[in-house]
Structure formats: structure tokens, C-alpha cells
Design brief:
Blueprint: E1 2-8, H1 13-23, E2 30-37, H2 43-50, E3 55-57, H3 61-65, H4 70-83, E4 88-91, H5 100-103, E5 110-114, H6 126-135, E6 141-148, E7 159-166, H7 173-200
Helix pairs in contact: 1-7
5-O-phosphono-beta-D-ribofuranosylamine binds near residues 93 and 184.
Length: about 210
């Protein structure tokens, strides 16, 4: 079993996509070991509870209030995930940028979802910013990518999967958001499936 942690800050629809894929057998030999939220009001917490997945609310505010650096929060959270024997970490709408204090504990095992193409619209509100760029005739398409997180750069890193989304002149921002979220749900599961297949592939020349 590959034990994964999903980190959320909000609605948790991408967490739900992973839960559905695990429960539906589309991510074989995967166990959702833990969900972590850094926001108390995140709907993702309720989704985890509903499906019997351990969930921990782990905010950074107490660290900030105590004058403790972000590195300490990151290291403590890494330790928490290790205590749940987690080997893969999925950032599914997780609003926090990792320092090396976290990333060095899960090298090449942290993935992130970004509702835009590589190198475009990094940070929050990516879909709305792409939509406005479309209205200004600057772009004709946007997209979705899932990537590994090697360092502190926001929404950047080796791409696992990506897909282009054409923007239709007649569609509203809400309609575009809906199409992109639907695609995110599929691509996140596809990326996880792909990475875990690669990891489980026997090395060339081995007898397995
Ligand atoms: C997604 O669009 C994700 O790409 C972005 O935040 C959103 C989270 O959605 N980083 P949800 O919480 O999974 O519904």
C-alpha cells in the first residue's frame, strides 16, 4: 500500500476526486493515510470525516503568534506526516508555500495542482486572471497542470501532466471555472496513477 497525505485549505473537491478514485478502485493499492487542513473552515475536513480518513487541522497562526519561523511549522508538519508513514504528499488547493524544511523530507514526493499551464498565472486566482487576459485578446487558451514541487517556487516544477483548455468567447468566468475544476479532478488522479505506476515499475534487469 502506498500511503498518501492530501493537504487542503478550502472546498476540497480535488480531495473528493482522490477519495472517489481510491474507493472506486481507480488508484489501486493507495491508502489515504491523512488529510491535513491549515484552515478550520475548510470543507475538505468534513469530506475526510465523512469517509473515515484521519484529518488534522494544523494552522500556522500559533507559530506566527509565538514568533516561530515558518521553517519550524514546515518541519513539524513533515514530522507529523512521517508519523503517519506517508510517502506521497498531494497539495490539493493547499495555500502555503513550502520551505526546504518540508521539501527535503519528501524529495520528489510532493505534487501540486495548478489551474493554468506551466509558467503561466502562478499564484492565486489563476483562472480569473487567465479569463481577463483572454478578454484583452492576450491569450486564447489556458489549462491545468500537475507538477512535482522541488523547491519554494510557486506553481512551478517538473510537469507530470498538463492539458490545454480553449476559452470560448461566449462562456462566463463561472463556466470556465467549472470546466477547469472538472479537468483538475481527472488530471490529479491521472498524475497520481502515473507517478505510482512509475514508482512500482521493477527496475530494468531486476527479477521482480
Ligand atoms: C483548485 O483550483 C486548485 O488548482 C487551486 O485551488 C483550487 C482548490 O479547489 N490551487 P478544491 O479545494 O480542491 O475544490
Amino acid at each position: 500500500m502506498t500511503r498518501i497525505a492530501v493537504l487542503v485549505s478550502g472546498f476540497g473537491s480535488n480531495l473528493q476526486a482522490i477519495i472517489d478514485a481510491v474507493e472506486g478502485g481507480r488508484l489501486p493499492d493507495v491508502e489515504l493515510a491523512l488529510v491535513v487542513s491549515n484552515r478550520r473552515e475548510a470543507c475538505g475536513i468534513r469530506r475526510a470525516v465523512r469517509h473515515g480518513i484521519p484529518v488534522i487541522y494544523f494552522p500556522m497562526a500559533p507559530y506566527t503568534r509565538a514568533g516561530r519561523p515558518r521553517d519550524e511549522y514546515d518541519a513539524d508538519l513533515a514530522g507529523l506526516l512521517e508519523s503517519f508513514d506517508v510517502t506521497w504528499v498531494v497539495m490539493a488547493g493547499w495555500m502555503h508555500v513550502w520551505s526546504d524544511a518540508f521539501l527535503t523530507r519528501f524529495p520528489s514526493r510532493v505534487i501540486n495542482l495548478h489551474p493554468a499551464l506551466p509558467g503561466e498565472f502562478a499564484g492565486t486566482d489563476a483562472i480569473a486572471r487567465a479569463y481577463r487576459a483572454f478578454q484583452r485578446d492576450e491569450i486564447e487558451r489556458t489549462g491545468v497542470m500537475v507538477h512535482l514541487v522541488p523547491d519554494e517556487a510557486v506553481d512551478a516544477g517538473p510537469v507530470v501532466v498538463k492539458e490545454v483548455v480553449r476559452i470560448h468567447p461566449e462562456e462566463s468566468l463561472e463556466e470556465l471555472k467549472e470546466r477547469i475544476h472538472t479537468l483538475e479532478h481527472r488530471l490529479l488522479v491521472q498524475a497520481l496513477h502515473q507517478l505510482l505506476c512509475e514508482e512500482r515499475q521493477p527496475a530494468p534487469g531486476s527479477s521482480r
